[in-house]
Write a structure and sequence with these properties.
The protein is of the alpha+beta class and about 750 residues long. The chain folds into two domains: about 50-260, Beta-galactosidase, Chain A, domain 5; about 295-720, GH92 mannosidase domain (GH92 mannosidase fold), CATH 3.30.2080.10. The protein has 19 helices and 35 strands. Strand 7 (about 115-125) and strand 8 (about 125-130) form a beta hairpin.
C-alpha cells in the first residue's frame, strides 16, 4: 500500500513538473489565436490568415465568413487586404465529369495558426496541409477517398500553362493599373495527364491528373508581381525541399522572433492571447513588395530598382497612423523608415505627387477622408526616424491636402468645396433636402461629411505646420498653425458640439448628434467627433468651459443611452458599434477618447475606463473584436492599452498613461535598448496607479515624452484596487506643440 502511494505521489509529482514545464515553455506565438473576431458584431470579421510578418505571401480560407459551411476552392494569394484572390487551387478525387474550375468543398477539422493551416475536405475526402514562406508556399494533399486524384489550378482573368511537373501563369487583378500576379508551381510527383477544364476569353483552368491509387501530392509555388521568371526565383530561393513540417517550423520561429519584441508577465492566459494576437495583427501589414533587387509599383505600373531598401504597400493610413505606425516607431524603426520612404516614392510615381492615404499593391485608393500620412511623417521624424525626405514629405503632403479634393472617397483634384474651405475654414454642409451639386460627392452613402472633413483637415494642417517647423520654414509653420485652429469655426457656442454650417455661415438647425452620420460627420456621430481635435486638446477643454465642464461632458459621452431600439440606431449608424453610452469601441477615431481624462487631471478615470473597455470588448473568443480590424489600427489600441500608455497625438512625441494589464513588460526598442514597465500588484482589481517612478525619479504626471524612454529605461507603477485621485494631477499632457 505504501509502495502504491509512493508511486502515485511520484506520478502526480511528475505530472505537476511536466505541467509547469509546459507552461514555462509556452512562447509568444502559442498565444496567438487567429480566430479572435472571426464572427463580427456587425462589421467585417477578421480571418485566420497564414503568412509571415509583412510578407507578400498571405492566404486565408476562401469563404464569406467563419460560419460558412463551404470553401470556394483553396487560396493561392490574397492580393490586397479584404481584396480579391489571385488564382485558385482545387484538389479533387473522383470521376472526370466532376472537374470544375472552382469546387465548393464541405470541410471539417480546420486548424489555423499564422504559420500553418490544415483542413479536412470531407467532400471529396482530402486532407489539406499548408505552410507559407515570404513569397512562396507549400501545400500537401492527402487523398483519402475513392477515384482518380486531380489537382486543378484556375484563374478568373488570366491564363495557365503546365508541362511535366511544373505549371505557371498570370492573372490580371486590376485593369486600371495593369497590375498582374504571376505564378510558378511545381508538383512533387509529375502529372500523368493535363486536362483543360475551362478556357474563356478571361479565365482558364487546367486539371493535372495523377496515377490511380496515388495517396499524396505536394505542390510548392512562388508568386510575383514582376514576372513568371521572378516567381520561379522566389520559390527556388525560399523552398528547396518538400518538408512542410520544417517550413512551418521556420515560420513559427520567424513569428516568435517578431512577437518577442514585447514580452509580458502576469495577467491570465486569455490576457496574453488577446495581447499577442493584437501584436501579431499589427505586424501583418504593410506588405513588403520587394523581390530580390526590384519591386513592382501599382502607382505607375512599373518595375523599379530596390536601391537597397524594402518597398511596402497595403497600408490603410486613416486607421494605422493612430497606433500601428507609432508602435513600429518604438519596436522597428528601420521598417517604419522604409514604409515612410515608400510613401514618398509612391507620391513621386504618381503624376499628381499627392502623398497617398491608402496604399495597395494595385496603386492608390482614395478612401475615407483627410490625408493623415503627414501625421506618420512628423511622428516618425520626431521619434528619431530618418531615412526619408522631410522636404518631400512636406511638399507632397501639402499637395495632397491643397491640390487633391477633400471630398471623401474621391481622388479628383480640388474644386469649389476646397476653395470654400481655403477661404472660410470649413466645409459647407447641405441643409436637409438641399440637393448635392458638387461633382465627385457620393450622394448615395458617403456624402460630404463636412464636419469630419473639416476636423480631419485641420489636424493635417497642424502636421504640416510641424513639418515646416522642423524644416525651419517659419512662415509656412505659422500659416498652417493658424489654420489648425479652424475647428473653432464649427464649434457651436450653445450646444458645445462641432456642428455643421451652411455656405452662408449659418448653423444647420435641428441636428441630432446621435443619429446623423455621413451627412455631416463620418462613420461616427457628433458625440464622437466632439473629441476629434487631436492636436489641441487643451484648447478644446477651454472651449468646453474648463476641466470641470469637460469632465461632465466626457462622462456624458459614456452614459448617454441610445434612446431607441438598437436595430433603428444601427440602421442609421452601422459603424458606430460596441457602444458604451454614445462612445463606440468599434471605430478607430474613438480610441484616444478614454485617455482624455488625463488632460483634465482625472487620470484614475482613464485607468478605470481603459480596463473596462479591454475587458468587455477584446476577448479570446470568436467575437473578441468589436469592429473592423483595419491593418493594426484597432489592434494597436489593444497593444498600447495593455502595456499601459498611448500615443494620443501622433506628431507630438508624447504618451499618456493608462493602466497596464501585465505586471512586468519588456519592450525591445529599435536601437537594442529595453524599456521595462513594472506594474507592482497589477491585477484585474488592482487597476489604479498609486504612485509612479520613471528611470528612478518620481513621476507625478500621467504622461511622459518619447525622449524619456528613447534609450530604454524603467517605468515603475504601484497599483491598487482603489483610485489615488491625487496621483497624476500635477500637470496636464502638452497640446499643440513641443
Amino acid at each position: 500500500m505504501k509502495k502504491t502511494l509512493s508511486l502515485l505521489c511520484l506520478s502526480v509529482g511528475l505530472l505537476l513538473i511536466s505541467a509547469c514545464s509546459t507552461s514555462h515553455e509556452k512562447e509568444p506565438i502559442d498565444y496567438v489565436n487567429p480566430y479572435i473576431g472571426n464572427i463580427s458584431h456587425m462589421l467585417v470579421p477578421t480571418t485566420p490568415m497564414q503568412h509571415l510578418p509583412a510578407s507578400m505571401m498571405r492566404v486565408n480560407p476562401m469563404r464569406e465568413g467563419y460560419n460558412d459551411e463551404r470553401l470556394a476552392g483553396l487560396p493561392v494569394l490574397l492580393t490586397n487586404d479584404r481584396g480579391s484572390f489571385a488564382f485558385s487551387f482545387n484538389p479533387y478525387q473522383g470521376e472526370a465529369q466532376g472537374l470544375r474550375p472552382i469546387l465548393s468543398y464541405s470541410y471539417d477539422n480546420e486548424k489555423a495558426t499564422p504559420y500553418r493551416y490544415s483542413v479536412l475536405l470531407d467532400w471529396p475526402g482530402i486532407q489539406v496541409d499548408f505552410a507559407p514562406s515570404h513569397q512562396s508556399a507549400l501545400y500537401r494533399f492527402s487523398y483519402e477517398g475513392k477515384g482518380k486524384p486531380y489537382f486543378i489550378v484556375s484563374t478568373q482573368n488570366g491564363h495557365i500553362e503546365a508541362q511535366g511537373d511544373a505549371f505557371w501563369g498570370e492573372e490580371l487583378i486590376d485593369a486600371a493599373s495593369g497590375t498582374k500576379v504571376y505564378l510558378y508551381g511545381q508538383l512533387q510527383q509529375q502529372a500523368e495527364d493535363i486536362i483543360p477544364v475551362q478556357h474563356t476569353e478571361k479565365g482558364q483552368a487546367l486539371a493535372l491528373a495523377f496515377a490511380d491509387g496515388q495517396k499524396q501530392q505536394q505542390v510548392r509555388y512562388g508568386v510575383s508581381f514582376i514576372s513568371v521568371e521572378q516567381a520561379q526565383k522566389n520559390l527556388q530561393r525560399e523552398i528547396t525541399d518538400w518538408n512542410l513540417d520544417r517550413l512551418a517550423l521556420a515560420g513559427r520561429e520567424t513569428w516568435n522572433k517578431a512577437l518577442s519584441s514585447i514580452s509580458v508577465e502576469g495577467g491570465t492566459d486569455d490576457d496574453k492571447a488577446v495581447f499577442y494576437t493584437a501584436l501579431y495583427r499589427c505586424l501583418t501589414r504593410p506588405v513588403c513588395m520587394s523581390e530580390d533587387d526590384h519591386y513592382y509599383s501599382g502607382f505607375d505600373g512599373k518595375v523599379h530598382d530596390n536601391d537597397g531598401r524594402n518597398f511596402y504597400t497595403d497600408d490603410w493610413i486613416w486607421d494605422t497612423y493612430r497606433t500601428a505606425h507609432p508602435l513600429r516607431a518604438l519596436i522597428d524603426a528601420q521598417m517604419e523608415s522604409d514604409i515612410l520612404h515608400s510613401c514618398i516614392l509612391m507620391a513621386e510615381q504618381m503624376d499628381n505627387h499627392w502623398l497617398p492615404t491608402f496604399t495597395a499593391s494595385t496603386g492608390p485608393r482614395w478612401w475615407m477622408n483627410s490625408n493623415h500620412a503627414v501625421a506618420s511623417m512628423i511622428d516618425g521624424y520626431r521619434k528619431g526616424i530618418r531615412g526619408f525626405s522631410l522636404e518631400k514629405a512636406f511638399e507632397y503632403g501639402k499637395k495632397g491636402i491643397e491640390e487633391k479634393s477633400l471630398i471623401p472617397w474621391y481622388g479628383g483634384p480640388a474644386g469649389e468645396l476646397e476653395a470654400f474651405y481655403q477661404e472660410h475654414g470649413y466645409i459647407p454642409a447641405l441643409r436637409p433636402g438641399e440637393p448635392e451639386t458638387v461633382k465627385g460627392v457620393n450622394t448615395s452613402w458617403e456624402k460630404r461629411q463636412p464636419v469630419a472633413v473639416t476636423l480631419g483637415t485641420v489636424y493635417d494642417e497642424w502636421c504640416l505646420a510641424q513639418l515646416a517647423q522642423e524644416l525651419g520654414d517659419t512662415a509656412q509653420a505659422n500659416h498652417y498653425l493658424k489654420r489648425s485652429y479652424n475647428y473653432r469655426t464649427l464649434f457651436h457656442p450653445e450646444t458645445h458640439f462641432f456642428h455643421p454650417k451652411d455656405k452662408d455661415g449659418q448653423f444647420i438647425p435641428d441636428v441630432n448628434y446621435k443619429t446623423i452620420g455621413r451627412e455631416y460627420y463620418c462613420e461616427n456621430n457628433g458625440y464622437i467627433h466632439r473629441w476629434d481635435v487631436q492636436h489641441n486638446f487643451a484648447d478644446l477643454v477651454s472651449l468646453l468651459g474648463g476641466n470641470e465642464a469637460t469632465d461632465r461632458e466626457l462622462d456624458l459621452l459614456f452614459t448617454t443611452p441610445i434612446g431607441m431600439p438598437r436595430y433603428n440606431f444601427y440602421h442609421l449608424m452601422p459603424d458606430h458599434g460596441a457602444n458604451v453610452g454614445m462612445f463606440s469601441m468599434a471605430n478607430e477615431p474613438c480610441c484616444h477618447i478614454p485617455y482624455l481624462y488625463n488632460y483634465i487631471l482625472r487620470p484614475w478615470k482613464t485607468q478605470k475606463l481603459v480596463r473596462k473597455l479591454l475587458h468587455e470588448w477584446f476577448r479570446n473568443d470568436l467575437m473578441g473584436m468589436p469592429g473592423d480590424e483595419d491593418g493594426g489600427g484597432m489592434s494597436g489600441f489593444v497593444v498600447f492599452s495593455m502595456i499601459g500608455f498611448y500615443p494620443t497625438t501622433p506628431g507630438l512625441p508624447m504618451y499618456t498613461i493608462g493602466s497596464p494589464v501585465f505586471s512586468d513588460i519588456k519592450i525591445q526598442l529599435s536601437d537594442g535598448h529595453t524599456l521595462q514597465i513594472k506594474a507592482h500588484n497589477a491585477s484585474e482589481e488592482n487597476k489604479y496607479i498609486q504612485s509612479a517612478r520613471l528611470n528612478g525619479k518620481p513621476l507625478t504626471n500621467a504622461w511622459f515624452m518619447h525622449a524619456d524612454i528613447a534609450q530604454g529605461g524603467l517605468l515603475e507603477l504601484e497599483m491598487g484596487h482603489r483610485p489615488n485621485k491625487q496621483w497624476g494631477t500635477s500637470e496636464a499632457p502638452p497640446s499643440l506643440g513641443m
